Amino acid sequence: MEFPPAVVDQRKLFELLEKTLRLGRLLEKLHVRAFEDAVRESNSRKPGQRRAAAITNSAHVEQHDKYQPLVNEAMRANGIKYTPAAEQVARQLGVSAKTVLRHTTNPNTQSAPRPE
User: Fold this and answer.
1) What is the pLDDT averaged over residues 93-105?
2) What is the pLDDT of residues 10-30, one digit of tens each?
3) Largest interatomic CA distance in the chain
4) Sorting pLDDT into bands at 50, 70 and 90, what band is 116?
5) Residues 97, 106: Cα–Cα separation, whole Å
6) Does residue 86 contact residue 75 with C-beta atoms inside 8 Å?
7) Side-chain half-sphere of 99: how many Cα atoms within 13 Å?
8) What sign does the dihedral 72-78-84-87 (CA atoms) show?
9) Cα dihedral 82, 87, 92, 96 sign
10) Residue 61's closest CA among 107, 99, 105?
11) Alpha carbon distance 13, 28 (integer Å)
């Protein structure tokens, strides 16, 4: 069975396409707006969260300066690499290894750029 070729009015097709795109944009805006209250509420809480974090962390900030000399000493005395030394210092001080690693640097790394 053969169908006759369809006659399409290009102007009507273009109008239909334009209306479809406009409707899609409107739906997208409505969908994004659904989260607007949550974003506004989150932004209003940030200053309080920062103050609370500063208060909580203030007790630990004083310890951060102790980490680097202890890591350097552990590396030199035990002949171990940076990460195991940081883990050892963390166990001694009762903090996580990540905390020590965040607040220290490897004394054996070169800070100069590599030659090309």
Assistant:
1) 92
2) 888 889 999 999 999 888 888
3) 91
4) very low
5) 14
6) no
7) 18
8) negative
9) positive
10) 99
11) 23
